[in-house]
């Protein structure tokens, strides 16, 4: 493994994955619960965006504290919150904004229900979000100053 890859896939990366599993359970419970159980899938695009946003609002609170203290062991006071919020917001908009048209294009002609397609789109968006978010948190939000 090259030195650059070793720097990326260090113990910080693996702690991020553990926190991600916890955060995912919380966030997915919120997102899919609202979308499917609370019926937001009947709201069209608004239900998609509200459900995914709720996931990241609740999940981000959990993620901030676990990643700041456990994953990145950042001792900085206060300033990390603003960078974290900017990172989460940008990653969410990019990931879910890209996933929506991409999955719609990939699944066009499959005859899937709007609800199933919405669920698959949110899964794709969350996968892209994880990748963007790791690099954003590591190199922006919790970068040691």
Fold blueprint:
Layout: H1 3-8, H2 11-37, H3 45-71, H4 79-107, H5 114-141
Features:
mainly alpha; globular; 145 residues; 81% helix
CA-CA gap between termini: 27 Å
Number of strands: 0
Overall mean pLDDT? 89
Biggest sheet, open or closed, and with what strands and sense?
A: none
| Percent helix | over 70%
Shape: globular
Number of helices: 5
Radius of gyration: 16 Å
Order of helical and strand elements: HHHHH
Strand content: under 5%
User: In terms of per-residue confidence, which ranges show pLDDT below 50 for 5 or more consecutive residues?
Assistant: none
Helix- and strand-based class? Answer: mainly alpha
Describe the structure.
This protein is an all-alpha fold. It is built from five helices and no strands. The chain has helices at residues 3-8, 11-37, 45-71, 79-107, 114-141. The longest helix is centred in the middle third of the chain and has 29 residues, at 79-107. The radius of gyration is 16 Å and the shape is globular. The model has no long low-confidence stretch (mean pLDDT 89).
Short recap of the structure:
This protein has 145 residues and is mostly helical. The chain contains five helices and no strands.
